[in-house]
Amino acid sequence: MSKNTYETLLILDSNHYARDPGGVSKQVSDILTEAGGEVLVNRLWMEQKLAYPIDKHQKGTYWLAYYEIEGVKIPSIDRALHLAEPVIRHLTVKLEPRVIEPILANARGESIKMSTPTDSNTEEKADAGKVTGQEVSADA
To answer: Which of 9, 18, 32, 87 has CA 20 to 30 A from 76's CA?
Structure first.
């Protein structure tokens, strides 16, 4: 079977994360790798007040995980995340192949320049007006 790239957004218990941030992030990574996935990026997104209380939690820590795995193994990850103590809620989506690289670059904090057809035409027009090297005179 072919592997797909997935994004999972987790809302973690802020108190649990504040006590042991390394342990919580390792637990998320372990869940993904034990299911047979390869973690590409695993990072903190933000911490904020929830729009409504979830299981008496007023605040949540948002965590993003990007990984490659076979689609048939997603239910086992879903079950493991549901049973994990620090996870309040989670959502997993399959990423389109054409957006994987820009999303991963953004998650890593890298900048990526997307080229468009108009960019290459603009560069060609700008280069056409420049003279490089030695100029040849009409007298020679």
So the answer is: 18
User: How many domains are contained in the chain?
Assistant: 1
In a domain, 15, yes or no: yes
The DSSP element (H or E) to which 10 belongs, if any, is strand 3-13
> Residue 100's domain spans which residues?
3-121
Q: What whole-number distance in Å separates Cα of residue 73 and Cα of residue 66?
A: 15
**Is the residue at 140 inside a domain?**
no
Hey, what are 16's tokens? Answer: 């649990």
What's the sign of the alpha-carbon dihedral 23, 24, 29, 31?
positive
Among 65, 62, 53, 51, which residue's Cα sits nearest to residue 104?
65
pTM check: above 0.90 = no
Strand, coil or helix: 59: strand
- How far, rounded to the nearest angstrom, does the alpha carbon of residue 6 sit from its chain's CA centroid? 9
Q: Is the dihedral of CA 52, 22, 35, 4 positive or negative?
A: positive
